[in-house]
Structure formats: C-alpha cells, structure tokens
Design goal:
The chain is mainly alpha-helical. It contains 16 helices and two strands. Helix 6 runs parallel beside helix 10. The chain starts with 20 loop residues before the first helix and ends with a helix.
Length: 318
Amino acid sequence: MAAIGAAPIDNSSAFERRPGWGAWLFLAPLLLWLLLFVVIPTGMLVVYSFAERDSLGRIVYNFTWENYLRGIDWPVLKNLPNAIATDGWQGLVDSFNQMLWLRILLVSIWYAFLTMVICMVIGYPAAYFIGRAPERYRNFLMALVMIPFWTSFLIRTYAWITILSSEGLLNGLLLSAGMITEPLRMLYTPGAVVLGLVYAYLPFMILPIYTSVERLDNAMIEAAYDLGAGPVRAFASVIIPLTRPGIAAGALLVFVPAIAMFAITTLMGGGANPTIGEVIHKQFTAARNQPFGAALGTLLLLLFFISLWITRSKNKAA
C-alpha cells in the first residue's frame, strides 16, 4: 500500500501516444489533396499577383505591387482625405464614384452581407424547429432542406430566371390575378442577385445551426424558466449563446463564398452591377490579365482570413 501523504504519481504520459506511420498513411490522401488543390494553386495565385503582363499579354515575373495598388484604387484612396477636407461629404461621394475596383469589392461585400443576414433570419427558425422536432422527423426535415442539392446548380439558377422574367411564372400569376397591369422588372436587378444567393446558400446556414440546436441541453432552458425568465429572455440569454458556434459557422459558410460567386450574379444580375467574382473571371478569360485577376483573388483570400479571425475572436470573447 502506498504511504499516506506520498506524492501522487503522474501517469498522464503513459496515455500519450505519437501518431505512427499507419496514422500518417491514412492522412496521406488528404494531405496530398490539400497540397495539389489548395497549397500549390494558392501559391501560384500569390506569385502571379506580383507579376506583370507585357504588350503581348504574356506574364512577366517582375516583382511589383502595381496590381494590388490598382485593385484598391490607390490613387483615389490616397487623395481621399484631401477631397473630404476640401469638399466634405460631396468630396467623399465624388471619390467613391471615381473608384472602380474597390467600389465593386464593396458592392460584393454588401451583397454577401445581405445574403448572410437574410439566410440567418430565415435559417435560424428553420434550424431551431428541425433541431427541436421529434427525432423520427428530423431526418425527413433535413432531407427537405437538402432537396435543392439533388439537382444541378445551373438548372436551379435558370429556373429562377424563368420564374422572374417578364414572361415568367410570377409575372403571369400576378397579371392573371389582376394585381398588376404590366409585367414587373424583377430579373437583372440587385434584388434578383440577392434572391439567387439566398436560395443557393440557405442550407449552409441551416446545417451548422441545426447541429448546435440539436445539442442543446434542455436542463439549461428549464433552469432559466425556473429562475423566472420568460420565453424571450430565455431565448436571448440561454439559447442564442449556446448556439452561437453554429451561427458563427453558418455566417462564415455563407458570407465568404457569396462574395466571390459570379455565376448567379452574372445570370441573374445581367452584368449591370458586376461583382468581384465576375471581374476576376473576366480578368482570367476575356481580358487575359492573369496578374491583376490573381491580385484581386489574393485580396479576397485576405478578406476570408480577416472574416475567420473576427469570427474566432468573437467566439473566444463569448
């Protein structure tokens, strides 16, 4: 028998095991995939972003910041304080109108933000309802959420074009009901772009929130009610904080890809208000200016890391 008062034996090291070659062998396909399709393409993107294009459209590997300075409209941005000091609010408006690429980036961020907010407003109640439903119904309800993924993304987008067009289903129903006298212009508008983005990314908001709601401890909610909290107080003080990780994950999964989306904005926006995804696509194809397109893509990558850092900081603070 061990002596009374003897120091406890630390056996934690006995349970520590370093991954052997078998574990690395299982990870090899994933690591290879990340290397080939994430690390190397990202490295090429960054290298191209510091290159130049000669008069024949060929890439010249001369280190330059010109692509980034052009991407943020640096000449106009540098003169912004003087314009505001001279003309005040009108100077700010004039400077914003002179910007091209930065204005497109801000418009893309605005579209993505609206998409994220609308998806959160619609997706949270849906995810909460599914997560609190009886277990025998949850799989069926989640299958309903995933139904759009059973068809092609382009088919779904063209379906919305058919619905929103001047001769489409929605205008036809409104005209038949006598609610309007002439077709409404719904397609090729900012509203159509946001609608398409919400439809495409709504499941990405519902899924992580549903996971957090499913793990809610009923005892915590009942304790809030026992302590005198009403439904609104219990929801705001208990349910929202406990499901915050799912909300943050859903916001990130919707916001980041919505910024760079170009298929929906091109097809449903008609190119009237181009987004940064459309610009990058055209730089690599029609304009054949890969260095500038790579710089814009790298700026989007930096924006993704900033969004991830903000999300992680808020989760740690909570």
